[in-house]
Amino acid sequence: MKKSKELKVGIIVIAALAAFYFGFNFLKGADIFSEKRQFYVVYPRVDGLSVDNSVQYNGIKVGRVNSVDLIGGGSDGILVGFEVTNDELHVADNSVANIVSMDLFNSKAIVIERGDSEIEAKSGDTLVSAIEADLKTDITKRLQPIQQKAENLMLSIDSTIAVYKKIGENLSHHDLDKTLNNLDATLLSLSSAANSIDDLARNNSYKLEAVLDNVGSITENLRKNNDQLTEIFRNFSQISDSIAAADLVRTINNAGDAMVQVASVMEKIDKGEGTIGQLVNNDTLYYNLEEASLELDKLVEDIRLNPKRYIHFSVFGRKEKAADKPKKKERTE
Questions:
Q1: Cα separation of 89 and 109, whole Å?
Q2: Which residues pair with 69 in a beta bridge?
Q3: Residue 144's pLDDT band (boundaries 50, 70, 90)?
Q4: Is 55:3 a contact under the CB 8 Å cutoff?
Q5: 314 lies in a domain?
Q6: Same structural domain for residues 41 and 121?
């Protein structure tokens, strides 16, 4: 009875281990019931390829990568081993094992590109290696010309915007409309003037001939008096040199300095600095002066009405009567 229980436990353990083995290999993508063929490929780099990455043929998973090892410490390349579990796949001896990117997340896989040889590769053979440019690199390579054109276009747009912005700073919308209206009016005036000139020329052709004759005569006179004109121009040149030699720049600079000083003084007056600033900005002094002027007027008026209170002619002197004493005046506001 005891041995029967131990046998059952053993069978259960073996079944559990077998189920774990098959389940683990199933989760890894290994088909343990199919005949496996092992192949090897030597790559200079693997670009993220790792164990358990899939092996595909025309979009169908036919196996998985089972080893990635360095050769000679990495100096001789990387040896990648993969197994093919599809029994129906014919792998020619000149087939190429190409590492490709499967998606934008840079997931790697080996894609078998079957060769044209009739000889089938045997398990343990080494196939030809190839590494396809990843999707990111391919997209970058394709977008690089477009990016260059876009950058050139943006530079052109920036230059155009800068020109229009500069024009906009100098001319507002109203000014631009006004300018266009003035230009339109000017063109109309020019057209009208051209028509008038045409009519004038048609109606006064004989006068134009006389004018042209006069112009010819004036030209002839200028030619005959060329020396005198040259002397006149030389005199004008000497006058302009004398004006240029005058110290006009210093005079203008002195006037500018004087204007700066005047502006500084006016700024101080506006801020209330100094006596003039106080007089201009502080009305207290004005009210005090006004009050003092009123008091002075009252004093002069009192002296005129009561001169005896302030002027005494007694030789021996006299005591001032109480009635003569000036009363203290109340201050009126």
A1: 17
A2: 79
A3: confident
A4: no
A5: no
A6: yes
